């Protein structure tokens, strides 16, 4: 219970609109817990930051895994990452500014690629599946990052339509 409270507070701080403001003291204050409870669950700040990131990645994977169509996947991902931009910033922006997450982001990327690759059932050749999935994950990551950053001045439906179109058109060309 306390661990989940700390993780939730950490996500709010790591994905805050002004960027990561994550110290042990700040997390404990936000969770309403003492540092003793923090150190019962985590060895140090770095382990904690990785745990917060892993929690958000696991939520994203669960959201995407349960999708039945490309549109469903994009809509679910937008709901999770854009409707709660804190989570989107943790997943997509925090690894660029939080050094401990550089490796964690790289560790999670193959899981997202593999998930998409399994959904590309129209493409039967494994190497082509891997290349298409890798390219699509890269493109979608860049799109969602720009959207969360406010660098794409488009409406929600236009953004979703574009992402779905990207997925469907790339796959249908094989």
Could you walk me through the main structural features you see in this protein, from its secondary elements to its overall organization?
It is elongated, with a radius of gyration of 17 Å. The model has no long low-confidence stretch (mean pLDDT 89). It is built from 9 helices and no strands. Helix 1 (2-14) packs across helix 2 (24-31) and helix 1 packs across helix 4 (45-65). The chain has helices spanning 2-14, 24-31, 35-41, 45-65, 70-81, 85-97, 101-119, 126-149, 156-172. It is an all-alpha fold. The protein has a single domain (2-172), classed as Tetracycline Repressor, domain 2 (Orthogonal Bundle). The longest helix has 24 residues, at 126-149. 77% of the residues lie in helices and 0% in strands.
The CATH architecture classification is Orthogonal Bundle
Strand content: under 5%
SS element count, helices: 9
The chain-level mean pLDDT equals 89
Low-confidence stretches: none
Helix content: over 70%
Distance between the termini: 48 Å
Number of strands: 0
Shape: elongated
Instruction: State the name of the first-level CATH class.
Output: Mainly Alpha
Structural class: mainly alpha
Order of helices and strands: HHHHHHHHH
Largest sheet, in brief, is: none
- State the fourth-level CATH superfamily: Tetracycline Repressor, domain 2
Number of domains: 1
CATH fold name: Tetracycline Repressor, domain 2
What Rg do the Cα atoms give?
A: 17 Å
Organism: Mycolicibacterium hassiacum (strain DSM 44199 / CIP 105218 / JCM 12690 / 3849)
Transmembrane segments: 127-148
Protein name: Transcriptional regulator, TetR family
GO molecular function: DNA binding
């Amino acid at each position: 219970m306390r661990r989940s409270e700390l993780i939730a507070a950490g996500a709010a701080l790591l994905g805050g609109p002004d960027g990561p403001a994550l110290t042990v003291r700040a997390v404990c204050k936000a969770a309403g817990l003492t540092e003793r409870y923090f150190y019962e669950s985590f060895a140090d700040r770095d382990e904690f930051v990785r745990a917060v990131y892993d929690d958000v990645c696991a939520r994203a994977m669960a959201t995407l895994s349960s999708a039945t169509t490309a549109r469903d996947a994009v809509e679910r991902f937008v709901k999770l990452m854009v409707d709660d931009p804190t989570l989107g910033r943790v997943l997509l922006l925090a690894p660029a500014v939080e050094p401990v997450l550089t490796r964690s982001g790289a560790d999670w990327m193959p899981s997202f690629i593999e998930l998409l690759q399994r959904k590309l059932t129209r493409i039967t050749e494994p190497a082509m599946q891997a290349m298409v999935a890798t390219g699509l994950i890269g493109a979608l990551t860049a799109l969602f990052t720009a959207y969360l950053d406010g660098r794409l001045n488009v409406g929600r439906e236009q953004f979703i339509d574009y992402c779905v179109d990207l997925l469907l058109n790339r796959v249908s060309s094989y």
